[in-house]
């Protein structure tokens, strides 16, 4: 059995561990061979594919990025499934492991359902916004990097008696902000799921300041204050829908300074959160998912993906993972309230 | 309501985050007051107790160790429960949150069951050996530190074409070795639950070496090779039952060198694994457990402890957590086989 | 002898190690007592001063920030030297150790020269722009943090075949960019001392891209391309003269993308570079400088500061350190050329 | 001009940065070609040599170890200089850059002086024991790793009210112990150059304990207490003359515990200190040394090596670097005294 592997969408710490886990498992216990598809769907559409051996994957589980490259090419562009079928047939590829986030998995599910392509999935996102999986690899690393940054910024804030605003990633969900904010001891955590208004933010900042602390505000890139001007909300989104340059953190900092009289600085962590070595947690999770994906392929479980449930790796349908965003639930938001302010 | 908190047994990254989470939650939403009990059961038996305020716990969630101190004093020594009752009554303490591992929780469960003391628990162990909880805080940090060490040792091993043996903690279970070995790309992972023999170890080392790799062996301190001389097994345990000095890593290294002819070095990570800043994962888990323990106390759920189940914090009985060790299961052992050798 | 200590200007990893080194040395070998002056010159002008004991400084050498707080209050504001003299006399302070950068040391030198105040100095700046000292503490930490960030960004850049622009601190000099760029393997290093034009930048980016690399551009915040529009140069400086928001990195990224056709992203490291734990190098240097400053005070060497020369700590005049900026010299610029492109 | 490069002796963070710096410089500005000699002198004696291109060295400056491999093969074994001359002639090698420590540089100096081989050097040692150079790359990384370890061990020691002994590398000199001990806030620093007796060690430990601290002892592997039994001194040296297993830290810990009554634990950092990613400081220094070595080769400066003097890279004779060990001088020992106890 020959398995094609591709990584698609934004890169994510742990991708290489998935690839290694799959290749090691497939070669050693299933006598499979592997084909590395370059840059996600682009490589499949353009037949940019090369053999992938155990030698190619040695020592890579701790390396950031993806040795296969990635892109945002859409699977239904450039000839789409018909073109893919030609490439797959010519290459003798029997199954495809697609490692990606919401868009990739939705595309893969459709390729299976509508076009009968033999695809299984591995969920990937630093944002942790995929449903039907407890966590996705990449999230732990992103939360760890954000926490380390918050630790650093705290000392400079305290020395200068400043308020510090830290903008973290997360797209439309607040998981990275919630976890790094809890871990870093933030006085305000601002997430898209629960859009508090400006006055609440100022109140948290003032409360921390009144107790002699340097107020620390962690804000998810997708957060928008309740009652914010629409102009604020629309300004400066980049091609991924993320707020560019200005950013919500840079929007909030001067407003906090004006409202509270406390000198305020903003830091936008940006791409730091998705690069570099994955944590041990993410390496283990990614390796296990890669190995499980090979089982799915061996069993012909097209349309299924490997998923974390508690401490187990289970099989769920890709469609169930992308059906809706996994939001921070009310209970987690209630839980964190006593830590704020 | 006045809550006494104590930390008992070996220290563990995240203890301070539990303490902070409990105090913040209790003071802010339950109008509780807190008493810090010094050095575990010792402080309770000797009335070494001081008020613990939100001021005392500010900024501590990222700090290693425990601000309350810890000891291995047994709860049934020095007057035991009767003495504790006198201290509790004199101090006006209404409930005790005991943060500890197997021994602490077993003692706490008995204090509730046999002596009617108002105790709730928070599970703590870097070894991840407690049952009825998915993970315990401290484990993620220990596995991360071990993985970083393995990453470092790999480069020196490769430069010298050596085999490197790394001994990690874990007491009688292999979780730290399993996770850090998977994350670090080990060629042999040796854990107490599955005692392979010397020949299997040599075979893994030779296999990696034959492929041009520097063989990397991760061994859990509690591992003993199948067929090992009893003298080896008994030698040099310290007061905690851990192998001292010599250690299993130092035992294996010369044997591997002699059997395979490959120069072999051993490193014993030791206390590095339990000190220093907790990872973001552990800080979040520990904070949530501390907050949940306050709910248990508020509800009078004596004998219960806060526990991780999937992504939820739930309540389970302390007895269920210590009833038996949580071993690495057969399925996880089978899963990792394709990565070895 | 009673010594007042103050930290002034932007905070810097290592400040606490200076304070600890001075107090330990003064108390133990010179029988001095110490007074902690809050928030730089502000505390001296407003008599915000408290005793500083060896107990206060224990365990702080590895902590970021400054336990004394800092501010940008000017020494010749609020009553200036006459007011200081009153405070010093009332407090019984015999000497002041002023820890600060260019502005602080220039102010301190003038207080000695014009007003006869008993001040000695310790040079501090992450920018490494002080003359007559080989390095200043804080610089090594800043360069290390920037390098770690570049390492992270490289993997994401490579996975996406992108160009990555990283803006680092440094004010009007390029030391942080030079060192982190060399350490991180940058393909373009842009520093204020050597303002190359846009075409040169594009050429370096194209050259790296043509060899299959993800082009990595490290730019110092004070860099301005030769031939840049004056509007670009003036836009968006903050109160410290640093480029705010937009920043030079954010200016360059779209221009590079447009000129080369290579997708380009920008990251502004910002305050991350000056917070958190100092490196071992900075802790040792800072500790030694703190101890040497006590010797200067004991000897009445007013107007002198402790300085690093090779591996020795020597005494130089504060005026000599601030007389001119320490620029990256031509020879260091020539040296790095073969690494670019 | 064709340049052979070799790395010899114990591995050291920064070796790859030297190799990259040399190759980039030589290829780009001197039109040289390079030959990678495997495993130090072994590769030269056995003609185990391959072309080394700029492609081979891309992205390696941050990687630990050495891509060329290393060994302890002596240059005067296996046919020695005559054999080397045959290999060099056959390969068309015009110069050799030997990167190594005391033994390697002494051998290289002799090959130049006695046998007329065209060799220049780059000094390398984590121990910082080479004379006539301010620092050697690898030392900063080793001191940083040791300091991070000490930071971790401190928290566990404080929680348990224990004394912690940390044994660091350094061979016959105390530089790593001195710097990591200063940076980590050690209460006792024990180095070979100044062999204090057991009573002094106990006094430092008691003094720290009496002030409520967890005593922290940093001991260099080459330290031996004044008045120590000769049996202690001789026991358990490994092939490199380093104390194996037992180690001086493991020797001291029970003695401290017995003498002071304070529970004491020992940690031996071992090979962790020489592996993994080099610090930014070491990468910059190593890169500059590699580039300077190419200049030496281009100029035919046989017998010379690149060396750090202040902030400059200069040329000194290899013989001057190995003539005597660079010991920790009396003045640095006096300086650190106020920090101990």
TrEMBL record, chains A, B, C, D:
Signal peptide span: none
Gene Ontology terms, MF aspect: 6-phosphofructokinase activity; AMP binding; ATP binding; diphosphate-fructose-6-phosphate 1-phosphotransferase activity; fructose-6-phosphate binding; identical protein binding; metal ion binding; monosaccharide binding
Sorted UniProt keywords: ATP-binding, Cytoplasm, Glycolysis, Kinase, Magnesium, Metal-binding, Nucleotide-binding, Transferase
Cofactor: Mg(2+)
Domain of life of the organism encoding this protein: Bacteria
Cited Pfam families: PFK
InterPro entries reported for this sequence: ATP_PFK (IPR022953), ATP_PFK_prok-type (IPR012003), Phosphofructokinase_CS (IPR015912), Phosphofructokinase_dom (IPR000023), Phosphofructokinase_III (IPR012829), PKF_sf (IPR035966)
Protein residues bound to ATP: 10, 72-73, 101-104
Annotated pathway: Carbohydrate degradation; glycolysis; D-glyceraldehyde 3-phosphate and glycerone phosphate from D-glucose: step 3/4
Domain Phosphofructokinase residue range list: 2-296
Binding locations of Mg(2+): 102
Keyword Transferase: yes
Reaction equations catalysed: beta-D-fructose 6-phosphate + ATP = beta-D-fructose 1,6-bisphosphate + ADP + H(+)
Complex formation: Homodimer or homotetramer.
NCBIfam families xref list: PFK_mixed, PRK03202.1
Purpose: Catalyzes the phosphorylation of D-fructose 6-phosphate to fructose 1,6-bisphosphate by ATP, the first committing step of glycolysis.
Family: Belongs to the phosphofructokinase type A (PFKA) family. Mixed-substrate PFK group III subfamily.
Name of protein: ATP-dependent 6-phosphofructokinase
Native source species: Brevibacterium rongguiense
